């Protein structure tokens, strides 16, 4: 564990001592209800976490964002909230509405839109220095509750089932060069790519190539995606999930069909968050499968995307 990992652990301890909201919500994690569903070699854990209603029910339409203060801007932070600088652009803050036992938000100091383009290298740097954590990115239409302010998040390793499952998941190698390989994940509940690299510059190059080939929806600023990245034994692992939809149909349904689940990186990493008890009680393996099939891209789109990634390599 590196020095910065130790510093953020201490930050969390200090903040829950003086910040009542954070202390209450981190203590509540010890009582959250959890149940698991098995899907072959994969496991999805479902967490009943009422405090996450802030994120799951966040209004992220342009009008709502324009009318509220940005809660990630330094001037809007609670007086009690303290951070640790990361370089000149970011600060590391504890997340007062945690999912992980150790949960951090890492916003840019400046109020700039949530975009991964040109920032993936920063994500790799964070994963390397926060080597006890998984760093993740939620696109502006992929679960980010602050799509108007660039930020990453981080949570302690060992929490997401994906971390272990990725070691045994079937995969198809698409490209390999300079100590870096990009794979297509196969026979999983959702379509995704894995970049595995011992060289940061090669990983950035591979990611940029993938980014360029992904579809950008009309009137949106970037391809829809979630990313989970961690650093282990001098190797970076990034799992990229191309997205089809922001929220599943059940989110907007009425009556018994309604289920307030707004999936993001953590859900795709194997931990589904339900802020309402009725949804935790009623969720089934079938509903989980349906939600995942709605929000992630189809096999047909994945086939086309994987082929384009390989083709651009041949051209270059």
Describe the protein's architecture and organization.
There is one protein chain. The chain is an alpha+beta fold and 316 residues long. Helix content is 34%, strand content 24%. It is built from twelve helices and 13 strands. Strands 3-4-5-7-6-11-12-10-9-8 form a ten-stranded antiparallel beta sheet. A three-stranded mixed beta sheet has the order 1-2-13. α1 crosses α2. The longest helix is centred in the C-terminal third of the chain and has 17 residues. The radius of gyration is 19 Å and the shape is globular. It starts with a helix and ends with a helix.
Main features:
single chain, alpha+beta
Tell me briefly what this model is.
This protein is α+β, with helices and mostly antiparallel strands and 316 residues long. It has helices spanning 3-18, 20-28, 53-56, 62-67, 120-129, 161-165, 200-213, 249-252, 265-268, 277-282, 285-295, 299-315; strands at 33-39, 42-48, 84-86, 90-94, 103-107, 133-138, 151-156, 171-177, 180-185, 193-197, 225-232, 235-242, 271-274. A hairpin with a 2-residue loop joins strand 8 and strand 9.
Beta-strand content bin:
15-25%
Q: Helicity level, as a percent range?
A: 25-40%
Number of strands: 13
The number of helical segments is: 12
Cα gyration radius (Å): 19 Å
State the secondary-structure class: alpha+beta
Q: How do the helices and strands follow one another from N- to C-terminus? A: HHEEHHEEEHEEHEEEHEEHHEHHH
Euclidean distance between termini CA atoms = 38 Å
Principal-axis shape equals globular
Q: What's the arrangement of strands in the largest beta sheet?
A: 3-4-5-7-6-11-12-10-9-8
Which spans have pLDDT < 50 for at least 5 consecutive residues? none
How many strands, which pairing sense, and closed or not: the largest β-sheet? 10 strands, antiparallel
- Looking at how many chains there are and whether they match, the oligomeric state comes to single chain
